Amino acid sequence: MDPFVLTLLLVGAAGVVLLLLALVIGDFSHLGHPDADGPFSLPALCAFIGGGGFAGAIAATVLDGIPEAWRITGSIGIGLVAAVPLAWLVVRFAGALMRMRTDETLSDSHLMGALGVVISAIPAGGLGEVRLSVAGQQLKYNARAEDALAPGTPVYVIGTPSATSVEVVSVAP
Amino acid sequence: MSPVLIAIGGIVVLVVLLVLLVLSRIKVAGPNQAFLVTGRRGNSTTSATGEISTDSSGQKVVMGASVFVLPIVQKLNTIDLSSRRIPVGIRGAVSKQGVKCDLEGVAIVKVGGSESSVRAAAQRFLNQQQGIDVFTSEVLAGALRSIVGRLTIEEIIRDRAAFASAVAEEAETSLTGQGLVLDTFQLQDIQAEGTYLADLGRPEAARVVKEAAIAEARARQAAEQERLLAEEAIAVANRQLALKQAQISAEIDAAKAESDAAGPLAKAAQDQRVLTEQEKVAERTAALTERQLDTQVRKPADAERYRIEQEAEGRKTATIAQAEANQRATIAKADADRQATIAAAQAAAEQAKLTGEGERSRRSALAEAEAIEGAKKGEAERLRRQAIAEAVESEGAAEASAITARGQAEAGAMDLRAQAFSTYGEAAVLDLLVKVLPEIVEAAGKPLAAVDKMTVISADGAQSLTRSVAGTVAQGIALTNDLTGTDLTALLKAVTDRATAKAGNGTTAAGSTAAAGSGSGNGKGIESVPIDGTTR
Fold first, then answer.
1. Contact yes or no for B113 and A106 at CB 8 A
2. Which among A37, A101, B192, B301 could bridge A94 via Cys, Cβ 3.0 to 4.6 Å?
3. Which residues of A touch B71 (CB under 8 A)?
4. What domain range includes position B180?
5. Could you report the predicted ipTM of this complex, rounded to two decimals?
6. Which residues, 6 or more positions from B104, have their beta carbon under 8 angstroms from its beta carbon?
7. What CATH code is carried by the domain that includes residue B153?
8. What's the pLDDT score for residue B26?
9. For B294, which DSSP code?
């Protein structure tokens, strides 16, 4: 086998080995902005090295027969040209996953306007218990109200004084 | 192998590994986990004063979802949202009333499910999550002590809403700030100082005991009543059964007796039939015997009796005639004696009258007194006798009229008979006489018939007897003459004469009659003295 081709194949194999190491023992290098998987992240580097090596090897084999200098230059050039888009695709793929939509985490603001029902009587000026239906889940909160409310009264949340208590008003007709 | 193929294979492997590496950076939170991703930069805002500040949005909180974590530059922290069971116990807590009590409860606590709670909890417990239990237990013990101080023991025990409200208030102040949520708090045990709790329940316990005792007593009463009723019913049923059994056994005995008696009864019926037949035979035999006796004994006896009767009648008639003759002679003699006596008495009376003249004057006074007394007595006697005389008179009148009637009847009969005789003529009269004659003779013989044994002492021998009978007959004829007014002798003579003139057969008839009359004497063994059968 042509030593030049072999060298290019080894460069490609080095990229694969790097990827395998990253998968087995975890990432060990990250270069770039912490909010994005940048062009110098491990996957991008591996893609660039591996892609360039294997593409160069193919080009060197195809260009067999032309003068040696031209052949080497042409092969490396083709390899680089092929490696850049691959690395770019990997960066784009990681970026897309990083910005993917997930379930919104419940926060106090979500409770505003929620409907529920009193499960422990709310005394005037004291705390009772209400069950609220928020984003499809039933949650129990401590509740205050201006007037005393009997259990079973439907209520409407008008405020969230704390993370575990709400202020309600009766919506009973 | 061609280097081209190797290179193509290498590219494929490279692409696959790249995809795997990128995907491995995605982390997924479980339902009981909260991810807190740090290392990112928060949003920066510029205030109106130009001051730039960054919020905490760089710390991303993810619950139950996936998140892309960049290695090295970002850090993923995990908070456990699971509930924690935390036992809480306090000793010597003082209630609102001042009663000391010990309480044991259990609290269920977890990290809050909202973003702010997770952030607060992460700040406090991220690296000491096992410490949550101890920490919370101590906080809750203090809270519970505060709760007990605000409530009475009765409220703690009974007023769930009040207790929950107090617990919520304590939780708001002590737990919420640490990102913890008190899901529930339950009292497990409460012990009051002394016998406070026991005393609380005593009235109710006493009431329950009372009601139980009452209910038990009533139940026992009802049960006893039912039992007695059941026993009564059983007794009634037993009586019924015994009666039925007795009845049945009586019926059986009766049937047995009947069946036992059937044999003897049949035998008796058979015997009865035999006896009936035997009775018939006996009757027939008796009838036969009777008939035999009739012919052999009774008829001859009747004949003999008749003969004896006839003889006795004859003897009786004769005796009567003799007695009458004697009576007449006696009467005649007595008459003569009386005449003589009267004459003698008249003579004596004449003499007495002469001698008793003096005496008479003396006695006349006495007699007069007695007369007055006697007159009264006599008056009474007279009245009585008069009544008797009247009675006798009426009796006599009745008798006289009866006799008159009888006499008239007899006279009528006589007339009729005389007429009949005149009508019948002589022959008829003769026929009658012939019929009467034997009776006359029989009557003449009757006295003799009554004689059992007779010895005739006479110079004429036994002929005097015949003479006596003939005399009797003659007397009878004379009597007949007196009674009937018919001269029987003359009549007989005329008949005899006529018969002699004709044929002389009348004697035979009379002789046979006489023979019959003397023959009757033979029945009584008269000492045999031959009698000459002479007749007229």
1. yes
2. A37
3. 26-27, 30
4. 81-193
5. 0.81
6. B87, B88, B89, B187, B188, B189, B190
7. 3.30.479.30
8. 87
9. I
